[in-house]
Structures are given as structure tokens and as C-alpha cells.
Amino acid sequence: MPEPASPPLRAPRRGAGRAAAGLRRMPPRARTDAAALARIKLVHTLVWAGFAACILVLPLASWQGRHRLAAGLAAVVAVEALVLACNRMRCPLTAVAARHTEDRRANFDIHLPEALARNNQLIFGGLYLGGLLFAAVHWARPGARTAAALGAAAVAALAVAGAAALQRRPR
Description:
Blueprint: H1 18-25, H2 28-63, H3 67-86, H4 92-98, H5 114-118, H6 120-140, H7 145-168
Helix pairs in contact: 2-3, 2-4, 2-6, 3-6, 6-7
């Protein structure tokens, strides 16, 4: 039986491996900092996504009558808010990331668009308060879905409008 032919050798794509080559040209300390910052940004983004999911699922859980789940989600976010309050409204991972770079843009420590990173607490704080309002009204009066939804939507709209106003504000 004949042996299968080996695939033809191809020339590497132009520009392939440039990122790795760029890292090799960095001094060892800078390479370590870049790798550490990349790991911190990944962890920070995953943690942020978890809290954002809790905030977004909170009113949905209440809408479905799963009030214990809604209360648990609210408690998880409340603990995060307490951690932020104890750290002058900054995530502790921000301080860890700051040791590895001189960059201080709003998103230097997380994989988010800069505008979202800058207004994150305002936007998600408003959504959280809106979700809490919705859950409280819905829990107190199970037939009050429409009123709770309108109240929560109003709070969320105010948060988004506030973030948009801050975005347009001259610095």
C-alpha cells in the first residue's frame, strides 16, 4: 500500500508571528508586565461580565416570580458595591493592573470600550437600582408587573441619559 503524500510546505503568511516577535524584542520586565496585564484584564472582564449578568437577570428573575433568585442576585451585586465603596469607588483589580502599566485610560484594566468603562458605574448602577425597584414592586404586588416595568425602565433610561450627558460634557 502506498504511503499517503505529505502536504506541501507553505511559506508562512506575511506578518505571521509579529506579535510574538514584538514580545521577544521587549525587555524581560516589560514582557512580564504585558503578560500580567493581559491576565488581569481577562479576569477583570470576566468578573465584570458576571456582575453585569446579575444586574440584567435580576428583574427577569423577579418577573418570573423567582424572588429568592432575584434577592440572591441583588445580594451579590450589593457585596460588590460594598467592595467598591471601601475602595473609593474603584475595583481592587484596577490597582493591581496599575502596577503593570503607565496607561491610565478608563479601560486600561478591562476589555471594554472606553466610553462604557468610563460610565460603567453610572450605567449599571442605574440598571441595578431599576432592577431593585422592579423586584420590590413586583414582590410586594405580584399583579403590578406593568407599574414595576415602567418604574424600572424610567430609572434605567435616566441612567443612560445621565451617561450620555456625561459623555458630551466638555473636559
